[in-house]
Amino acid sequence: MASITPQKPHSNKSGLSGTTIAIIVVAGIVLIIGGLLIGTLTPKLFPVQASAESQQIDNLFHILLVIGGVVFLLVQGLLVYSIWRFRAKPGDTADGLNMHGNTTLEIVWTAIPAVIVFVLTVLSWQVFNTIMLPKDGEMTIVANGARFNWNFEYEMPLSIMGKDYDVSKLPPPVQADLADDGLLTLTSATLYVTKDLPVVMEMEPVDVIHAFWIPAFRVKQDLIPGRITTVRFTPSETGEYLIECAELCGANHGAMRAPVIVVANETELDAALMPIMQKIVEPPDDPAERGRIILADNTYPCFTCHNLADLAASNWVGNVGPALNGVADRAATSRSAVTGETPQEYLYNSIHNPTDYLVPGYGPLMPVLNIPECQVWDIVAYLATQSETGEPPFEVVPPEQCVVAGPPPGAEATPEVGAEATAEVTGEATAEATSDNPVGEEAIEQIGGAPVTSPVAPTAEASAEVTDEPTAIPATVAP
Fold first, then answer.
1. Which pLDDT score, from 0 to 100, does residue 39 have?
2. Spatial contact of 473 and 407, defined as CB atoms under 8 Å apart
3. What is the pLDDT of residue 128?
4. Omega prior to 118 cis, within 30 of 0
5. Rg from Cα positions in the chain
6. How far, in Å, CA of 237 to CA of 51, rounded?
7. d(CA 458, CA 216)
8. pLDDT at 199
9. Which of 185, 152, 473, 457 is closest to 297 using CA atoms?
10. Distance of alpha carbon 243 from alpha carbon 251, whole angstroms
11. Residues sharing a CB contact under 8 Å with residue 118, sequence separation 6 or more, in sequence order
């Protein structure tokens, strides 16, 4: 009887059996499918894509997630297999097999990651260059980061108010701002942008490093002290989104957020910024009222550190700095005695030079905010009212250039009002004039800043008639 010789499993030149190769192929397919699933399903958890750049960023993320998913499943799979396959048998107390050195394996697991990193670097560089490329007609907005708040500066023309102004009657700081380029600087605690209008953000912190991050736009950029950094994006969906600080910057870092509102067109953008401009060009007469408006707008980070009951509705519930309730009484007594300054000097220097005097129990956290001079004096005037009685215990005397006297600066009459007022004033003035008091030159009346010409000088009665006519003097801004 012939003997039967057992057949060895078929193997190739590498020494791997066909079964082993089949297992490796199946495992590879499973890893690839698993990576694709991770790369496809994970972005479903991402915020909505609200910018033109978000799709490019998400496509890059998709590639990263697929590769990362494959690597994750491979490493975890080998770990689980090794734990099961090479586990110690019951009663086995011997040392494990001493294995070291496999040049082929080391070359493979070094070369593959190197290729992957190189490819991802090239793809990332291409995406970065694409989204940071300057675009035609892009709008420049300045972003300032301070612990723990964002504010945004716009350069806008007076025309967004929808009426003409006699610039010579506007507050001196406004005239000075307009003198440079005819644009007025507006500061907002909310970022307003327009759908499909490219935006470039020029950003700088006033204290430590911050990170400007809009998850829905897929953009993030650090703000570095002493440098101006930029980020570009083009909003593609209207709505309200969230700006966050992605760099740990202090105790209230988690509260350093701001809304970004995408409007449909430039008309809506002008309408959104118009109330901010109105508070600047038509300020109330009372400096304390102006100061309250400034602080209630939260364009400066004061509310993130200080507590003030009068502004609780504006989220003034900070706990990092001293409470400002009753600060006027303290400025007039203990603070003035310790610093040797007058109460108004103490409040002024506390804003401009916050580390000169530190309230006991608090550190030098407050940055120099570079608040415009006249706004500082308005804030001082408001803080002077924060006393037990509600009345200032001392007088605040701002510089002459910061005094807004009389009615708010007048706007030129609109065409409808102006034409009607001109006709009525001219007719009434002419009717009231008599042949006994002729004049040899034209008399000029001023209605809302617009000159009105009549052939004769109006009498006192005519003047009374003129006073009763509607004018285009804007109403004051309520606090």
1. 78
2. yes
3. 92
4. no
5. 35
6. 7
7. 64
8. 96
9. 152
10. 18
11. none
Chain segment 137-152, per-residue pLDDT in tens = 999 999 999 989 999 9
Residue 7 is predicted with a pLDDT of 53
> What is the reported pLDDT for 40?
80
Amino acid 368: pLDDT? 86
pLDDT the model gives residue 478: 33
Task: Give residue 197's pLDDT.
Answer: 95
pLDDT at 96: 75
The tokens for 180 are 């440079």
- Which of 143, 296, 264, 277 lies closest to 195 in space, CA to CA? 264
Query: Contact, 303 vs 311, CB < 8 A?
Result: yes
For residue 384, report the phi and psi dihedrals to the nearest 5 degrees.
Answer: -65, -20
The pLDDT of residue 330 is 93
Q: Which residues of the chain have pLDDT under 50?
A: 407-479
CA distance 117 to 43: 21
- Could you give the dihedral angle defined by the CA atoms of residues 309, 317, 349 and 397, in that order, rounded to the nearest 10 degrees? -30
- 450 phi/psi in degrees, rounded to 5: -105, 125
User: What pLDDT is recorded for position 142?
Assistant: 96
Report which residue type is found at 74: L
CA distance 421 to 129: 58
Write out the two tokens for 41. 């399903």
pLDDT of residue 392: 92
* CA pair distance 255, 432, nearest whole angstrom: 66
Q: How many CB atoms lie within 10 A of CB 378?
A: 28
pTM of the model: 0.72
Handedness of CA 54, 58, 59, 64 (dihedral sign): positive
